[in-house]
Here is the input.
Amino acid sequence: MIDATVQAYSYFPGCSLTATNRAYDISTRSVAHVLGVRLVELDDWNCCGATAYLPIREKRSFVLSARNLAIAEKEGRQLATICNACYVVLRKTNKYMAEDHKLHGEIRGALRAGNMDYRGTVRVRHFLDIVVNDLGEDRVRSHVRKDLSGLKVACYSGCQFSRPFDDIDDAEYPVLMDRLMGWLGAEVVPFGLSAKCCGGMAMTTHPESGQVLTGRILQTARDRGADCLATACPLCQMNLEAFQGKVAQAMKADCDIPVLYFTQLMGSAFGLEPQALALRDSFTPVETLLKEKVGG
Amino acid sequence: MTTATAKELSEELLHSVYSLPHGEKIKQCLQCGTCSASCPSSAAMEYGPREIIASLRAGMLDRVLNSRTVWLCVSCYSCTIRCPAGIPFTDVMYELKRLEVDKGLSRDASGAKMAQAFAETVDQYGRNVEIKLLSKYYLRTNPLKALLQVPLAMKLFFKGRLELFGRKIKGLEGLHKMLAAIEENGKK
Here is the structure.
């Protein structure tokens, strides 16, 4: 356990967090501030490559990630991410370079062409892992002002949170988010689909396929009596909150349920104002839900 | 497509797969089907992951690449984490997607066009700009479908969640130099 009084991380928000899913970025910064964690935005970061650049050019995609790793190495901190796709792609690039010296050499050569270098010392982290494992239960509990005891939460980590890197949580049934929600006082409903895929980009490229995957998650959360779903990834959040109408048509069943980032639930429990958590950005009635269940 | 070309495709793919970390484990596939059973998209694929490996061994990869299969992979890594032989099958899928794009074989164009539009946007700005990505994608696939996205775009706009103009990263020139340098090591 690291001494947590002046913890600082280089912070990689990721492209979708700058506008479309800014609520995740805003609420993350707000709760980090309360917890006394410094998230220092990575200087002039670029796209990590995500899951969509890899199928075009693998090495170019690795260079995209490596540029960010190089900046983090220069800043001398661990690299914190909140998007599951950024987390996996940055970590995968890091791992493949460590395992394959030829690849590392080629990528270093490319970085040097742009006056950067990467030796391979950065550790890539997901913010949820940081909250649960670096800060821990006592630290989180000490900031709870309005516990979430009236709220039933289905925790949905998303597929790439614990896969392929299953060293931070169970690959099939992740529990970190469940534990965190428990510390906040929420009632965590049994929900077996925490690591099942939401459909990802298929929601746009193959909607008939994506809608079924999202539909199963929404329906199961409702069936288990959850008041809301909690997410840890901007694409999961988008798929689960923005297409509920279309998904309901495809599934021929009700699929509406409020969906929040886990950081928004943390912030609510910490007593933060709705603006600090960008609750108004939501397409689902999250403010009403929190008012009813958690109070003002 | 002639049989020889199909065989060449298999060989080309295997060559790329062997260069991946743990890629050689593909030789140890026992055709147990855990990958296909774990895949959330296999029901929608014309050939599931187990059949893809079988097709490779039979030199019939052309059938897979000409079918509605590889772009349905959502990169959830279920197959990779569960494979008893330790085959990184999600990475194999990425290799298949690349091969399909390179050979211009995609019958199922939407996934390939999305990925191409994404890569172009990132090359241009250093970051993804969603409105640019989606306009490119719908113009190249089905412009009419873009109209169906208008209600969502309006909702995003009124919430202030729609970025209308992309901002380039400061170090774009340097990034372009890096990307040009890595291309010199072969196109993969």
Notes: Chain B touches chain A through 60 residues (CB under 8 Å).
